[in-house]
């Protein structure tokens, strides 16, 4: 993974906000998505192209947390977590294995 791959992780460090909705540039909401903020502390959508036990990191609703940000950023920098696709989506799926219950 390149250094720029980790740019999406900065959403986890936006602690001045109660909730953050991260949407990749290739997502196109077709209707109001305000209800997304009603999910738990962290949620994402199931990846339709991959296994049902993986999430698509291109749409995440999260509660910013500086310590989680540090763990994710440091873990990736040190190679603590792998990536099944050599990208941020694979990395986050490895780093947050219990995402279905998060």
UniProtKB/TrEMBL annotation:
Matches recorded under SUPFAM superfamilies: Nucleotide-diphospho-sugar transferases (SSF53448)
Protein name listed in UniProt: Hexosyltransferase
Domain of life: Eukaryota
Taxonomic lineage: Eukaryota, Sar, Alveolata, Dinophyceae, Suessiales
Matching Gene3D superfamilies: Spore Coat Polysaccharide Biosynthesis Protein SpsA, Chain A
